[in-house]
Design brief:
Strand content: under 5%
Structural class: mainly alpha
Largest sheet: none
Helix content: over 70%
Radius of gyration: 17 Å
């Protein structure tokens, strides 16, 4: 993972010199985490996750001049990704159900029994709960940063996190 100083240097090179290699370095640093974020939100739909991640990076590149550096680049990037996911959701027909994503996925991400149990437990969560669980446990982000990404206040995030853990525990006990 890049330090904040390294990120700012790369961003400066992108903005001032239109250095696409510098942006490529940022993409390489964040792509695995962004892809995992979307895989969890889409319940394993690889194609959709890749599309959303790609669109997130394209939008980040286009909007890079608006990055103020007040938060980490990753926080800003995940906010773009979060918005991209919900834009995708709004564009779908009301009858479209993202919960059917595992059937649409071309290949399983991990065929182990544990992975399937976690996927089943994640499928029981609301989109907001899945987002919070993914950002907190999988991406290891603090509540304050998740609040910045999602726009949800910290106490509400803690409630979502608590409910999500309870639901997952209940599902995994079965």
């Amino acid at each position: 993972m890049l330090s904040k100083v390294e990120e700012l240097k790369l961003i400066s090179r992108c903005v001032l010199a239109d250095d696409r290699r510098a942006f490529g370095t940022l993409v390489e640093a964040y792509q695995p985490r962004m892809r995992q974020f979307f895989l969890n939100l889409t319940l394993g739909d690889e194609y959709l996750s890749d599309d959303l991640a790609q669109e997130t990076f394209v939008k980040a590149y286009i909007k890079l001049r608006s990055f103020k550096g007040m938060a980490r680049f990753g926080t800003w990037l995940f906010r773009i990704g979060y918005n991209e996911f919900y834009s995708y959701k709004r564009s779908q027909h009301p009858t479209s159900d993202l919960e059917s994503a595992p059937e649409r996925a071309s290949t399983p991400i991990d065929s182990s029994e544990i992975s399937m149990d976690v996927k089943t437990a994640m499928a029981q969560l609301s989109e907001t709960e899945r987002t919070v669980i993914t950002l907190f446990y999988i991406n290891d982000l603090p509540i304050k940063q998740i609040s910045t990404i999602t726009g949800i206040n910290q106490s509400t995030l803690r409630s979502h996190l608590h409910r999500a853990k309870e639901k997952m525990a209940k599902t995994l006990k079965k």
